[in-house]
């Protein structure tokens, strides 16, 4: 997982990039790669990082087993992703992130916790979903604390908008779920509206959902809760 204040480059909204003439789902941000992260990329990357390709990914071959697969967009530094994967060993987790220090950080956690059910694609999530993930291939999808773009003039850059939600819904198997979380109330309201407008999805709650047990509370989130800040979870399922 990533929080909205962690420097990262994925989990960003789709916008038009005039230099590349395509829709992108992120804004690239520079970040320092630590020695430990670099070592993790060198030693563990070949096993746990999957190359982007404009071909359908064989999930069973990628993970070495058949199991329900959960995709996460923008896992930041990977602490929550690793914790969830460790707590749900019977499921596969595919993390999509473009921020190299975040990839290195999650690889380091994979090594420290001896996790075998995680794979990473370092690429734009929209392209990964479009080209690599087959329709109805996912048991679930996580989008935790994407950049809120809190200034009103930047709201259009937010990740959770109709086109991406429609794409995500098409990749969920019937009964699969989409779990979003944010600590910005106006973004939560937008998420609720956009998700409710997607005809392929059904809300599991009357509005916002209780935080599922599998999503741990981050240090940043705990700090905000102590200060009285809200956190909103939304859990929708594919009809």
TrEMBL record:
TM ranges: none
InterPro entries found in the cross-reference section: SAM-dependent_MTases_sf (IPR029063), tRNA_(Gua-N-7)_MeTrfase_Trmb (IPR003358), tRNA_methyltr_TrmB_bact (IPR055361)
EC number: 2.1.1.33
Annotated binding of substrate, by residue: 151, 183, 218-221
Reactions that this protein is recorded to catalyse: guanosine(46) in tRNA + S-adenosyl-L-methionine = N(7)-methylguanosine(46) in tRNA + S-adenosyl-L-homocysteine
UniProt GO MF annotations: tRNA (guanine(46)-N7)-methyltransferase activity
Keyword field contains Methyltransferase: yes
Annotated GO CC locations: tRNA methyltransferase complex
UniProt keyword list: Methyltransferase, S-adenosyl-L-methionine, Transferase, tRNA processing
Biochemical pathway: tRNA modification; N(7)-methylguanine-tRNA biosynthesis
Binding residues for S-adenosyl-L-methionine: 72, 97, 124, 147
SUPFAM superfamilies hit by this protein: S-adenosyl-L-methionine-dependent methyltransferases
Region (Interaction with RNA): 153-158
Family: Belongs to the class I-like SAM-binding methyltransferase superfamily. TrmB family.
Function of the protein: Catalyzes the formation of N(7)-methylguanine at position 46 (m7G46) in tRNA.
Protein name, UniProt field: tRNA (guanine-N(7)-)-methyltransferase
Naturally occurring in which organism (per UniProt): Noviherbaspirillum humi
Lineage: Bacteria, Pseudomonadati, Pseudomonadota, Betaproteobacteria, Burkholderiales
Record gene name: trmB
């Amino acid at each position: 997982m990533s929080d909205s204040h962690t420097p990262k480059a994925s989990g960003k909204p789709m916008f038009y990039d005039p230099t590349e003439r395509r829709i992108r789902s992120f804004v690239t941000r520079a970040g320092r790669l630590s020695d430990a992260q670099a070592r993790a990329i060198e030693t563990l990357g070949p096993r746990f990082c999957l190359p982007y390709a404009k071909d359908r990914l064989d999930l069973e071959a990628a993970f070495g087993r058949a199991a329900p697969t959960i995709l996460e967009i923008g896992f930041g530094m990977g602490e929550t992703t690793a914790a969830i994967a460790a707590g749900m060993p019977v499921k596969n987790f595919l993390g999509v992130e473009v921020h190299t220090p975040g990839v290195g950080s999650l690889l380091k956690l994979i090594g420290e916790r001896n996790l075998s059910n995680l794979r990473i694609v370092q690429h734009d999530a929209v392209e990964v979903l479009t080209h690599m993930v087959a329709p109805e291939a996912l048991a679930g999808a996580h989008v935790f604390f994407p950049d809120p773009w809190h200034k009103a003039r930047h709201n259009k850059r937010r990740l959770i908008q109709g086109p991406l939600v429609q794409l995500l819904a098409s990749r969920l198997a019937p009964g699969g779920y989409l779990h979003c979380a944010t600590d910005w109330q106006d973004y939560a309201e937008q998420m609720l509206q956009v998700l409710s407008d997607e005809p392929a999805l059904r809300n599991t709650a009357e509005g916002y959902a209780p935080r599922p047990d599998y999503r741990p509370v981050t240090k940043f989130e705990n700090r905000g809760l102590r200060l009285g800040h809200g956190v909103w979870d939304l859990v929708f399922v594919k009809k």
